[in-house]
Amino acid sequence: MRRPVIAGNWKMFKTVAQAEALAEAVCQGASGDVDVVMAPPFTALSAVAQVLKGSRVGLAGQNMHHETEGAFTGEVSPAMLKDVGCSHVILGHSERRQLFGETDEGVARKTGAALAHGLTPIVCVGETLAEREGARTMEVVERQVERALRGLSADQVAALLVAYEPVWAIGTGRTATPDQAQEVHAFIRKHVSGSHGAPAAAALRILYGGSVKPDNIGALMAQADLDGALVGGASLEAFSFLKIVHYPPDVR
Ligand code: PGA
To answer: Ligand 1 atom 7: the closest Cα is on which residue?
Structure first.
């Protein structure tokens, strides 16, 4: 059985004080049967790490450079994320790909670097609206998954997280239907089974992201190949995020 993961991507929101308050509230309300992860902005990682100390809640960076250190103004390294207490790192988010020119090759380099530093990558993939309407969803997602995981061992793939986030569903209030999400999740798992073997595919946790809210999480999590969610907007308040964390137990 794959243990569910609910991760909150705070994007470019929250001052340090706001981040501490949110982390504290989430930490107090998080339950034991779901892995909970929070991804504050870099400036709040250290403070949130203090809040999460002794809890089982994971801490994620929202991005990183693939090198350990160097003359890369404005960048943060995997070693720095680890040093500050991160357990996870979001890689290849569609906002990074679309607004900051991240490529499949760059995401692959970062994925390898994260694993080498003991960070669990949350590798984001997903098609744009034009790609979906052009019936290219599977082709795009397959390419993104293939390039990100190429060169990794079966054990490494089994340990990481993939987040399927259709770009048209992010921040739009337009969630993929449970069937649409399941179709792509099953496709990703089948692809990984071919590339890294059935046991790695069976262990791989695939999260859905894109306008996940308290009222749609239950139907999404009822799908066989959905193992969790990457939540943006609804993770910015403890009340809505915890409602997602505590999604109806009958679909677990
Ligand atoms: P959203 O963002 O939940 O606000 O759509 C999801 C994400 O970007 O990870």
So the answer is: 232
The answer to whether the CB of 77 is under 6 A from ligand 1 is no
Q: Which of 177, 17, 5, 18 is nearest to 90 (CA)?
A: 5
Selected catalytic residue, list 65, 66, 88, 93: 93
CB 233 within 8 Å of CB 243: no
From the CB of 211, is ligand 1 less than 6 Å away?
Answer: yes
Provide the pairing of β-strand 35-39 with 58-61. Answer: parallel
In a domain, 122, yes or no: yes
- CATH number of the structural domain spanning residue 21: 3.20.20.70
- Dump pLDDT digits (tens) for 85-121: 999 999 999 999 999 999 999 999 999 999 999 999 9
Provide the number of structural domains found in the chain: 1
Name the residue with the closest Cα to ligand 1, atom 9.
Answer: 232
Q: Which domain holds residue 189?
A: 5-245
Instruction: Report if residue 252 sits inside a domain.
Output: no
Q: CB under 8 Å to 216, separation ≥6 — which residues?
A: 175
Return mean pLDDT, the chain. Answer: 96
From the candidates 88, 131, 165, 196, give the one annotated as an active-site residue. Answer: 165
Q: Is residue 207 within 6 Å of ligand 1 at its C-beta?
A: no
Residue 165 annotated among the catalytic residues of the structure? yes
Residues 217, 229: contact at Cβ < 8 Å? yes
- Ligand 1 binding pocket includes 212 (Cβ within 6 Å): yes
Indicate the angle between helix axes 137-149 and 178-196, nearest 10 degrees.
40
Q: Are 190 and 183 in contact (CB under 8 A)?
A: no
